[in-house]
Specification:
Amino acid/polyamine transporter I, globular, 444 residues, mainly alpha
Length: 444
């Protein structure tokens, strides 16, 4: 069970393929207790969830909270609900068809369509990597005083350290990711305890407001939050890694696998919802105050957090969580890139080479922004990268729903009409937000 090199369904020069580690994690039989089966399926959901709390999420949530208080919490909540439903669709595709989303697209769509979908997905992966590069560079700068330019360059090596764990098996990699996710969750639970936010004001933020779509700046940040939460490449990632479980290849076994994998995904994304909401609540409670300029940079939030909360270690805890989120998201982003390239193009690269190439592409705009604008440029680029992710979402969501809401592809495992309607409504909402934002930008 060597995952040091990922590849294709058919082996080419370069090593074993990702499908060779599919069905490599043992699952108790159907007669086993639900608790044992749930534990066996726990893991892929958390690998996906790290993408929902990466540095790009931090940038949009801090900017939104410091400028508009708790008002954008409703966007985080609705975005996470959509993410839960769409990841459940990715689980269903992977387990019921035995294909990930990229492989299904390559099999059923014309080459021209596949090429377009691949390009847009690569853009999304690069945008995500850009956020991780900048976030980790800022974290290294805040905690250790490392210059931003040097920190950006150092991030080329970070993924290699974790990818080395793959030789120990997929469960080892999942364990490391779960540990990093836990660090982020614990750090923000501590921040909330120190802040003591007003509960009534926080709860009111979960009620949608018309101002979100009428205020251009709020709309821009809302679209960024959607992109940061419902990340397109995570749909490809989840539909692949969920197949690592060795479930019974019977209708009953597949239904059971879908059920437990969906629970794993939903619980993990509930943790991501808590983290994202906590980031915005901390930003709103600490920085959204009369006479105080809005905080839009991670470095400013770090510097002001301890004095504002009156807790000396608050800033250090913030920096540790930032590093943990960036590192964990880097690993899963690399896996997603591998899955997308192999699925669409039938081309295999080692994870190390894939990480290096993607990082190098992401580093170029990061270096330019840091060199030219400093921290201010880095913060603006972080938010913009999440808006780019939102713009790419339809090119992943529509193919996913095309496969999972039609019996032609999944037979009895396809979603029923009620769930299909909700999923297509969510997809149309994402498109509508993107189009409305662009229309407001070009007519402003």
């Amino acid at each position: 069970m060597n995952l040091a090199v990922l590849g294709l369904n058919r082996v080419r020069k370069g090593g074993p393929s990702l499908p060779q580690v599919h069905r490599s994690v043992a699952v108790p039989g159907l007669a086993s207790s639900a608790a044992k089966r749930m534990m066996a399926f726990a893991g892929p959901g958390y690998m996906v969830a790290v993408g929902y709390m990466d540095p790009g999420n931090w940038a949009t949530s801090i900017a939104g909270g410091s400028q508009f208080g708790y008002a954008l919490l409703s966007v985080i909540f609705i975005s996470n609900l959509m993410a839960m439903a769409l990841q459940a669709a990715a689980v269903r595709l992977g387990l019921a068809s035995g294909q990930d989303l990229a492989q299904a697209c390559r099999q059923y769509f014309p080459p021209v369509i596949n090429g377009i979908l691949w390009v847009f997905c690569e853009v999304a992966i690069i945008a995500c990597n850009l956020a991780e590069v900048l976030g980790m560079a800022i974290g290294l700068n805040l905690l250790f005083g490392m210059p931003l330019l040097l920190g950006v360059c150092v991030t080329v090596l970070d993924v290699m350290l974790i990818l080395a764990l793959q030789s120990r098996g997929f469960r080892s990699l999942e364990a490391v990711i779960i540990a990093l996710v836990s660090v982020v969750g614990i750090c923000f639970a501590a921040q909330l305890l120190w802040l003591h936010p007003p509960l009534a004001a926080v709860l009111s933020g979960f009620i949608p407001r018309s101002e979100i779509v009428t205020n251009p700046l709020m709309l821009y940040l809302a679209v960024g939050i959607v992109g940061a939460t419902v990340m397109p490449h995570n749909l490809y990632l989840h539909s692949s890694i969920v197949q690592t479980r060795e479930h019974a290849q019977t209708p009953e076994g597949t239904r059971s696998a879908i059920r437990f994998a969906t629970i794993d995904s939903t619980v993990a994304l509930a943790l991501a919802l808590f983290v994202n909401a906590a980031i915005m609540v901390v930003a709103a409670g600490a920085f959204n105050r009369p006479g105080v300029a809005p905080i839009t940079e991670l470095s400013d939030a770090y510097a002001l957090l301890s004095p504002t909360l009156g807790v000396g270690i608050a800033s250090a805890v913030f920096g540790i969580a930032l590093l943990a989120s960036g590192l964990s998201a880097s690993v899963t982003g690399t896996l997603a890139g591998q899955i997308v390239m192999e699925g669409f193009l039938d081309i295999r690269l080692s994870p190390a080479m894939r990480a290096f190439l993607t990082r190098c592409i992401a580093i170029v705009p990061a270096l330019v922004a840091v060199a030219w604008y400093g921290n201010a440029g880095a913060g603006a680029l972080l938010v913009f990268s999440q808006v780019v992710l939102s713009m790419q979402l339809p090119f992943a969501v529509f193919p996913l729903l095309w496969f999972t809401t039609r019996r032609k592809h999944l037979g009895a495992f396809a979603f029923g009409w009620k769930m299909s309607l909700l999923l297509w409504m969510a997809a149309c909402l994402i498109v509508a937000l993107n189009v409305w934002m662009l229309q407001r930008m070009f007519t402003a």
